[in-house]
């Protein structure tokens, strides 16, 4: 009984806006009273469509939490999150699942693939779950883009780490989601495979028009993006367009000096 | 010490994962202990009963040399009045009393309803003696004073709602005693279920023995200072050694106990057998649990090895966990066993058997047996996984954990499994070819055990193929979710194999027994169609003979063309080759030849009904070289000796009356005194042509005053047969249910542990859009396919066993093989349902998993 919902790959609420996802006054807090820990503190953010956005910040800055909230993986305490114009914070579990399935793609740091399925099956899994037929031409295009033609019948255990991540990228791209969230996608790769991986993501934005949000703590990785958001103590403290690795690193170091003890306001001066 | 501490912590940390293994141990140990407590309690109850109802010294009729060759006269053997007088002269005898008691009676109330026990306990009619006064108390009314008085025991009165003044009819071999209830007596010890009626001595003698100068026994009470042994010696001297049987109180109780004891032993060992099967099934569950725990803990074990733990230490730490599981499970199991025994006693109470919890017997051996068994089995089951834990290399600590490596089934396993299965198959084949049932049963047993072990060994290899085939039919329609379930079921064939094997054992037994059962019914039906010419059969269902009065009524029934009876006569028969044996002769009338058609291999059966003639069966004839025309010396039990000429030899190609030696009932009458002439075992009747219905109704009406006899036409007879076999099978299935429940727990266990093991995968799938419903369905489908795989193996194996058993039992008349496809199909479908149920909890749990936690799990 698969409900074949045919959601247009890039269609949220009709008109195609320049914003793929957004959060307003987003608060995520754990616990209550004395033990209350605020992971996200009134965050406002807009993710541009067709762009490659990087979210950076030190450990515990809330960058993964922000991604999880934007992707409908985690519930929020306050505020609203929109994906393609649709408010998602009050969606029921079922609708959220469908949202993730039909409109969002994921790439995780590790353990991206089901060991029982071969590469091709892993790539088409979200569509299989939805009961949708993959678009053949598009699928071939994606597979060619990530260079996996000869590896489609291999199980994950027969693939290298880089190849596994490329399968994950292909899976995320194949369903043409409105937005792809990548959580430290190069974290487990050697530098060569990591660079290759990032080039794929870059290409998919440039050539396929894909929207990508990537969480990373690696300035080199962030340099592949169009725009970098800096998070510290649950707030967006800075942002940078068309970053280079040096500039990112420089900004990071400055932030690291400023942030301790600060409430984050003066960090975003320039 | 650290090892112990680590084990204890591990055990407590993973107690949830061990829970189902513990339940399996608890259930099996509880069943073992429950059985022991229950049967011990029954033994205690009977011991007390027999001890309290036996006189200091009992004089009873001498037992005939050969118990088998006695005919049923409906009257118990007796001692003459002189025995009573003789016993009085014995030194040390304080009082002597004649006892009259018979179990060959049926007591009915005013509505012709049998008031006897429904559980197979006897109905006893007896005279009211001083001995009875010590064990029974008259709680209302008075003791029987004359022929119209009867006293009944309180349990029966309560069960059948009898009160003073109610009329009871006691049907005996000599006639009916119609009497009103004059008193109700209550047992002072526990009476498990016999219905007892008391008469005054004269009435009892006249009606039960047909003589007022005889007793069934003499009770002698010892004077003060005289031991029972001394008294027995004195009584023996007074009456003459060898004249009668003399027993002290203890001897009498022991011999009564021996009779019931063999029944209790059968019950005990049968129940223990089922407990053993459950225990065996539990082993699979425990093996799986420990294998999975070890696999999940590979990294941790690697670390232990890396920092210097020896293999032995790792191995030992796992075994200590098993020990803790075994001890905890067994202790709870022993307690639960006592509870189970009490529950069983309550159940028996509801069915009409009285057992008092005040006699609950917990021998010291019971908890010891439960503990030793539970702990040993757990350790045994954990041994292989523990050894595997010891082999984990220190490098494992450094490797990425991920999902534990999927187990692969090896070649050695395949070859070994196939060899065992082939050996077992050969055994089964040999059983089908056996010429003697006793040889064949050995082959059958060997074949069953070897094929079972073979299937268990080879199961993981079969999983690959069979699960795929099953999946094509059952899972593929569910699309990707179905295929994911299939892959999950296949990813660890050893685990799937062991889980399914547990289910296989129970279902194989169910299948084989159902094949044997339905073959029994089919064979008997075929036999009835082939050889029984009579339309109606009158017979009791509890081994009571048909009394002369009842037989007379049957003969008087309307619309009957012929009425004929079957009587058994005991005799010692000497063949021409000089061999002598106690045998039963079938005393019938010539009309019996039409009621039950028999083939002969030589001679004419009609001639066997001539004066001083008889027939023998082919087997007997072959064994003793008897031919038509030979003469056999026949010494009738309690009668004279005769020389009977063999006029016919019947073929053994039959089940009913196989090997019967027919004589004319008049021949028996000639050589037996009237009081030794037997009652009939059954009455066969044929209706007038075209009046079958009327005749059947008339005969039923005619026999209504005798509820102990069933009147059945052929159709009803077949139905009864089927019901009886069905009831027997249901009872066995009920007992096998324990093993099947443990096996289902095994499926739950495997799924639950798999869900824990696959936490990250589940999180990933949920993140990329698998809905809770789909996730739950995936787990359910995996469960269904594992259950169906087990069912397929079990039913296949069981049908082979059943077919082999039938071929073997064909030697005993089980000629027709019938596979009960309905049952087999129902079990197969049922196992799919069981699979669904087994997946409920694990699927629910997987559905509730937090997506983020699942992704984050290391």
Description:
The complex is a heterodimer of chains A (270) and B (858). Chain A has eight helices and ten strands. Chain A is α/β, with parallel strands linked by helices and 270 residues long. Chain A has a single domain (19-265), classed as Rossmann fold. In chain A, α6 links the parallel β7 (179-183) and β8. The radius of gyration of chain A is 18 Å and the shape is globular. In chain B, α2 (15-53) runs antiparallel to α11, α8 runs antiparallel to α15 and α12 runs parallel beside α23 (772-809). At the A-B interface, α2 and α3 of A face α14, α22 and α25 of B. Chain B: Residues 274-394, 735-850 form the ABC3 transporter permease C-terminal domain. Chain B: Its main location: membrane.
Tell the overall outline of chain B. globular
Give the distance, in angstroms, between the N- and C-terminal Cα atoms of chain B: 29 Å
Provide the number of structural domains of chain B: 4
Overall average pLDDT of chain A: 82
Text of the CATH class of chain A: Alpha Beta
Q: So, CATH architecture of chain A?
A: 3-Layer(aba) Sandwich
Looking at this structure, what is the CATH superfamily of chain A?
P-loop containing nucleotide triphosphate hydrolases
Structural class of chain A: alpha/beta
Give a short overview.
Chain A has 270 residues and is an alpha/beta fold. Chain A has helices spanning 63-70, 93-103, 119-130, 136-145, 161-174, 191-208, 219-222, 245-258; strands at 19-30, 37-48, 52-56, 78-83, 86-87, 104-107, 179-183, 212-215, 227-232, 235-241. Chain A is 34% helix and 23% strand.
